[in-house]
Amino acid sequence: MSEQVERTPENGASLSPSGALPPDSQADLHIVLGRNLRRLRTRRGHSLERLARQSGVSRAMLGQIETGKSVPTISVLWKIANALDVPFAQLLEGETSRGPCILRGSDAKLLSSNSGKFISRALFPFEGSRTVEFYELRIAPLHRETAEAHAPGTRENLFVAKGVIEIAVGSDKPMTLAEGDAALFEADAPHVYRNLVTSEAVLYLVMTYAERVS
C-alpha cells in the first residue's frame, strides 16, 4: 500500500481480522468514499464547517476523508450519513453496472470500530440507490459496541449465525439472542450489541431505510 492510513482517536483504520485489507480494495475505498462525500456535501450546499457542526465530526477529519487520506470508523460514517440524510451505503457506492455481481471474500471492503473488535462487511455492491442493505457483522469475544440512532424509519433485522449476543435498543429491555435466533427492531434510537461469550459472534444484518420523498 503506497500510503499509510493515519490513526487518530476519531477515525481508526478499517482493518480485516488478519490486520489489513487487500491493497487494491483499501485504496478503492479511500477514493470512492472521498469522492462521494464531496459530491453529497456540495450537492446540499454544505461547507466543511457546516457539515462538521451538524455531524459532530471535525472539519479536519472530513477534509482527510474527502482527499482520500483516511477511512473512518463505522461510527463516524454513521454520523456523516445521518447529517447528510442519506443511507449509509450511499457514501460508499461505486459506478452502476448491469448483470450478475459476485462479491469475492478476498476483495471485501471491511469497516471496523476504533478497537477493531466490531467489523462490518457489506454483502451487496456499493452502487445505485437502495433502501435495503445486507451486512455480515463480527463481534469480538465479550465486546460491547454502541451504535448511534439511525435516521427515523430505519429498521434492523438481525440473525445470529454464531454465538450469543445481547441487544439493547433505547430504554427497552435488552434482548438475548442465541445461534439461530433473529430479531427485528426500530433502529432510530441508540442501540448496543454485546457479545456474551468468549468466542467471536457472527451476525447477518438487513438494514431497511424509510422511503425518501423527493
Automatic annotation (TrEMBL):
Residues in HTH cro/C1-type domain copies: 37-91
Gene3D superfamilies the UniProt entry points to: Jelly Rolls, lambda repressor-like DNA-binding domains
Pfam family, one: HTH_3
Listed SUPFAM superfamilies: lambda repressor-like DNA-binding domains, RmlC-like cupins
PROSITE patterns associated with the record: HTH_CROC1
Keyword Iron-sulfur: no
Xref: InterPro entries: Cro/C1-type_HTH, Cupin_2, Lambda_DNA-bd_dom_sf, RmlC-like_jellyroll, RmlC_Cupin_sf, TransReg_Diox_bact_type
Keyword DNA-binding in record: yes
Alphabetically ordered keywords of this record: DNA-binding
Chain positions covered by the region annotation Disordered: 1-25
Annotated protein name in UniProt: Helix-turn-helix transcriptional regulator
Organism: Bradyrhizobium denitrificans
